[in-house]
Give the backbone structure.
Amino acid sequence: MSRPSGAHRGTIHPGTAASMVAGALAVSLLVAGCSGGSGAEGTGGDPSASGTVTLVTHDSWALDEELVAQFEEESGYTLEVSAAGDAGTLVNQLVLTRDAPLGDAVFGIDNTFASRALEAGVLDEYTPAELPDGVEQLGGALTPVDQGDVCINADQAWFAQSGLDVPVTLEDLADPQYRDLLVVANPATSSPGLAFLLATIGAFGEDGFEDYWASLVDNGVQVADSWEDAYYVDFSGAGEGGQRPLALSYATSPAFTVTEDGSETTTSALLETCFRQVEYAGVLAGSDNPEGAQALVDFLLTQDVQAALPESMYMYPADSSVALPDDWQRFAPQADTPFEVDPDQVSEHRDEWIERWTETVVG
Amino acid sequence: MSDSRLRRGLRPAPLFWAVAVAVPLAFLAIFFAWPVAALVVRGFVPDGALDLTGFTDVLSRPRTWRLVGLTLTQAALGTAFSVLLGLPLAYLLYRRSFPGRGLVRGLVTVPFVLPAVVVGVAFRTLFAPTGMLGFLGLEESLAGIVVALVFFNVSVVVRTVGGLWERLDPRAEEAAASLGAGPARVFRTVTLLSLAPAVASAASVVFLFCATAFGVVLVLGGVRYGTIETEIWTRTTQFLDLRSASVLSILQLVVISGALVVSARARRGREAALHLVPARGTARPLTWRSPRDVTAALAGAAIVIGLMVLPLAGLVARSFREPDGSWGPGNYVALGTTGERNALVVTVWEATATSLRVALVATLISLVVGALVALVVSRRPRSLGARRAVGGLDGLFMLPLGVSAVTVGFGFLITMDQPVLGVDLRTSGLLVPVAQAVVAVPLVVRTVLPVLRAIDPRLREVAAVLGSGPGRVLRTVDLPIALRSVGLATGFAFAVSLGEFGATSFLARPDGATLPVVIYRLIGRPGAENYGMALAAAVVLAALTAGVMMMAEQLRDERAGGEL
């Protein structure tokens, strides 16, 4: 559920104290920051000597306070969380700060960016002692924690009313009877947009995806810059007056459009159009507290955390033996066979694919 | 009295001026120049060896020049229309009084702090083929982007120009009129000329905001329109292509500096000393007998209603719609929760409290730094070198508005890798107010400076001649007049901090999220409840800003009427 974040005006960040004047200024600013209570509480002290473990994550991180307390109690460590923008920004920040990492552990590197992190050597190898069945690590360093499918969603009411069948496959989307009905997100500016581009590459291959996109363009596909933009402005199923009954979203989105009485949902995901995003956790190379980081990665795989993921982070647990909430079982099934692209291939060709997509779709 | 005495009197206390120059410079160097330089250097020295091929590579792409063209075009149009629409509003809100004026003044600033995603989506909804303004065909058009840019920035013009306008002595205009000049001629030859410094000040700030606009350009421009800024963002965050990003950053800096130099040229010489009077008393009741008032009132109403009330009312109305389609306060009640399926780590009210605390600190820092810069820059030293240095300082503090947020943000990550006093500043959240202050400083400078510059230097000379020391001259001449515009600057700095998103999202910890950060987060999740909450939270942010601005105005008027 990460997305590009941005500001409409320029903004700034600081540096370290190099000279006496600079040092004095920094100190006075530190004091000012503390008195302002700007979220600085509890960051004092020397992290290397204390039992603090710092988790670097993306801005979609959300875990129950009770679970955090449980981790702190069981492990004896204090958990600090530092958020760093969306999933792509997160990985890029880790690469830039390789020599002096931002924390001890990371959560939220996904399979569209995983290879970049592995290649840059920002992670230490670590395999949890109790890896649940069916959970496969990446590069011996990245442990999957959760996953979610990015799929085209359909507004069922619209289709019922128009008498059209809801499309099923990617090919259907290029069928003239679905002309001007689809809105997607730009893969250059949106991570679900990129995931959907990868779905089409998984489906049509490196040599075929451009032709497919050309046929979508012929069929009147609209491209929005972000998921929010596509879903809330253009998608008719979001209830905001949009006009297009087919939009790029998540397989779990239908659980958000459940009717008042909870009996059914007004949208559905086309489960044959999906790309599976997997989010990984790992231990940062050069961490001050590798043991703490390992304990945290272990903790993210416990049944308690795995069971809490749907409600807190809105992702499916990596451990498939964990029970799902009722409405997920009913309204938000995962795809049986999502499209896949080898992470190494993604790493090698991501930029080139986006450029080729841009050539084809934007011109 | 001798000439030497006069000169001695004017020579300011060296220590004071040294500090006044050193503190802002150190601030800018540590929290802006160093991080930017570090990142750009990283782009050119990828593997220990200097690699400048990025220049030929990026500069030979037709796309680069298309983006430069688009950046300049949309910034120029955005600035021109902001000034054009801002002037009648400034007249109406600062030279005329009418019931509800305070409210309108507050309202005008609201767009300035609204999150780009919320505004982008709101405008897209208006412009979509089925939207209320769909018939205008503004979807994915340059015109659509310009409308949104003006929406964001017109308040900068209104406030900066209005702040000076309400202190202009009306007698000059009256004299011109009594000598037979028509209203248009009086406006052109007297009023506009006097306002030129404030207009130029506002225009350069607006130009920078427009040239580096990011979120609304992405949302409203679709895939076709972009700026150097959006390209730097994409190159950095999506591709980690620091080589191209560095070249583009330098290109952006060159383009922006060029524009600033041109505007400084245009400004030079226009900044005459003016006869300033207390704000209270210059505003006359709006009258329907004056054609000028009628025109201003009608134009003002059209601008406020068309540009602000319409989009904002849509936002407010939508925020009162419940997920089931009925009307009610449900979204506001939900602000006390962490959202549907715990979309947030803190409640919106907790984030609001954080926002206010952070804004307070950011405002203090930016006022101290900004006021010092304005004070130094307002002087006209005798030697050419010193004059140039002062002018350079002025331009220097505008640059933070002209450099990409990601450039600075990523630069910060690689420069701040050593803990200060055992605290890793990168992850501590301490830097959020500092980062916001760097953005607010240029606005503080541009708000205070025109008023300070308008002080007749003879006032200072007279004070000096009468035996006041340099410190006393500052205290008795500059400070009181500066203080009057400080209320306005305070409001602006506070508003910038409240609405700031880029740096904050980079630096804030999840439990230290500010209001814009939680709004972005809510709107980034599916679900009618989360969307409704995002809009309700945006309305809270808007109301907070309007309230703060009205308080700042109040403060200013009281000061102006007091012993100062």
